[in-house]
UniProtKB/TrEMBL annotation:
Cited Pfam families: Anticodon_2, tRNA-synt_1c
GO molecular function: glutamate-tRNA ligase activity
Physiological role: Catalyzes the attachment of glutamate to tRNA(Glu) in a two-step reaction: glutamate is first activated by ATP to form Glu-AMP and then transferred to the acceptor end of tRNA(Glu).
Gene: gltX
Protein name per UniProt: Glutamate--tRNA ligase
EC number, UniProt record: 6.1.1.17
Enzyme class: ligase
InterPro entries attached to this UniProt entry: aa-tRNA-synth_I_cd-bd, aa-tRNA-synth_I_CS, Glu-tRNA-ligase_bac/mito, Glu/Gln-tRNA-synth_Ib_cat-dom, GluQ/Sye, GluRS_core
Transmembrane helix among keywords: no
Localization in the cell: Cytoplasm
Similarity-based family: Belongs to the class-I aminoacyl-tRNA synthetase family. Glutamate--tRNA ligase type 1 subfamily.
Length: 487
């Protein structure tokens, strides 16, 4: 197979006809990260060109296709905002149409009946292996009369593939790729039980759905040459192909679970990633526009083209995703974040939040989100608001309430108790006075305060903590801290 880079971008030459793309997952598991990126690229390309983005569920593998997997795929696409046009197409329901096309090709001479038995085919492959030849069908029934077969013998229908010359696909990512037709054998279109093969079903569905651009992983590039044989045999318009390199782990190996190749639902539910962050990360995973890193959806639609897709595999980096997610957390609406964080807090404390507590959580977002990289960290950071008194101190917090720390805590408690208006300026003035009187920096005063107020050594800014807790709760926790240390 030879590759040659296409000189000009096809995006600048798109015909006036409507662009139609499709995403066609197999429902044998959750929507994985590579599939999500393929869906995103198809969605963006269609939206940029004012076309349609379609969804097809390739559920012909009945043993492995499951309804929960279908629901997980649909749920993941909706969460990512990759809405499809029209109703989803289910490939299995179209089996009769696929068989109809196979018989049309049989009638036109572009396909033929093959009566080779399983034993004969296995013997053929064994001989090829012994002679170190490529394993491919040898065309033994290509030119034979079907009447040579025993009456009622089972048969498959095979494509009568071109044998001479070569086929070139001008792929919009991989460039011009050429294969000698002699390398392509006569593949099966219809099995002996009358069921269509995947290769036939894909081509028929793409044609009937009006797909103009097939954008998919480059592991399908070899399939494109075989599928193109069906397209040409039927005299159908040839789609534009764009085969995207696969995603690898940070170590350069094929992406697997150990690299973070989880279902999209796991990024949402387990890792606390926002959909806009995952969208942005997947967009930049193999596609780029200058130095732009933060690209919201509207900007992505404006910019996306196939010429920006690289030819080398992309490397998945969880740290980069979390950093990007931190950016979108800081940009997110506080009420929306509180709604996403509330169930996580409830799970941590073992009870649902009340209305007042949910409002408190919302007000805490502005203080918590600058330090968080995901929703889990936001939930953990907010826990101090909902702990019951007296607080359990972790080891680091307890260490801050040593003798010097308790002395500063007592002074701070007295100064804060004298504050008449519980607002930021008054709190700052009170604690600044404590630090000055003790001859230490404000950070020294904040450390034992933080331990007593939150039970932890790390928290939002001390003034934010005091304001969020309020006067009564804040002073009560300081009293608890002093009493606990003296007990």
């Amino acid at each position: 197979m030879e590759k040659e880079r296409v000189g000009a971008s096809f995006d600048d030459k798109i015909a006036s006809s409507e662009v139609v793309t499709r995403f066609a997952p197999s429902p044998t598991g959750f929507l994985h990260i590579g599939g999500a990126r393929t869906a995103l690229f198809n969605w963006l390309y269609a939206r940029r060109h004012g076309g349609r983005y379609l969804l097809r569920i390739e559920d012909t593998d009945r043993a492995r296709s499951t309804q929960p997997a279908i629901e997980a795929i649909l749920d993941g696409l909706r969460w990512l905002g990759l809405d499809w046009d029209g109703e989803a197409v289910f490939q299995f329901e179209r089996a009769a149409r696929h068989a109809e096309v196979a018989h049309q090709m049989l009638a036109s001479g572009h396909a033929y009946k093959c009566f080779a038995t399983a034993d004969e085919l296995e013997a053929m492959r064994a001989e090829q292996r012994a002679n170190k030849l490529p394993l491919r069908y040898d065309g033994r029934w290509r030119d034979r009369d079907p009447s040579d077969a025993p009456a009622g013998a089972p048969f498959v229908i095979r494509l009568r593939a071109e044998q001479d010359g070569e086929t070139t696909i001008h792929d919009q990512v991989q460039g011009a790729v050429t294969v000698r037709n002699a390398e392509l054998d006569d593949m099966v279109l219809l099995r002996s039980d009358g069921t269509p093969t995947y290769m036939l079903a894909v081509v028929v569905d793409d044609h009937d759905m009006g797909v103009t651009h097939v954008i998919r992983g480059d592991d399908h590039l070899n399939n494109a040459f075989r599928q193109l044989g069906i397209v040409r045999a039927m005299g159908w318009p040839e789609p534009v192909y764009a085969h995207i390199p696969l995603i690898h782990g940070a170590d350069g190996a094929k992406l697997s679970k150990r690299h973070g190749a989880l279902g999209v639902d796991a990024y949402r539910d387990e890792l606390g990633i926002l959909p806009e962050a995952l969208d942005n990360y997947l967009l930049r995973l193999g596609w780029g526009h200058g130095d732009e890193e933060f690209i919201p959806r509207e900007r992505a639609v404006e910019l996306f083209d196939l010429s920006g897709v690289g030819r080398s595999p992309s490397r998945f980096d969880m740290k980069k995703l979390e950093n990007l997610n931190g950016h979108y957390l800081r940009e997110a609406d506080d009420a929306r974040l509180a709604g996403l964080v509330a169930p996580r807090v409830a799970a941590l404390i073992g009870r649902a939040l009340g209305e007042d507590e949910t409002d408190l959580l919302r007000r805490s977002m502005a203080s918590l989100k600058p330090r968080a990289r995901n929703l889990n960290e936001l939930a953990e950071g907010a826990l101090f608001l909902f702990r019951t008194r007296p607080l359990d101190l972790d080891d680091r917090a307890a260490a801050l309430l040593d003798e010097p720390g308790l002395a500063l805590l007592a002074q701070a408690r007295a100064a804060l108790g004298a504050v008449e208006t519980w607002d930021a300026p008054a709190l700052e003035t009170a604690l600044a006075g404590v630090a000055e009187a003790a001859g230490v920096g404000l950070g020294k005063v904040a450390q034992p305060l933080r331990a007593a107020l939150t039970g932890r050594a790390v928290s939002p800014g001390i003034y934010d903590v005091l304001l969020l807790l309020g006067r009564a709760e804040g002073l009560g926790r300081l009293d608890d801290g002093l009493a606990h240390a003296s007990a």
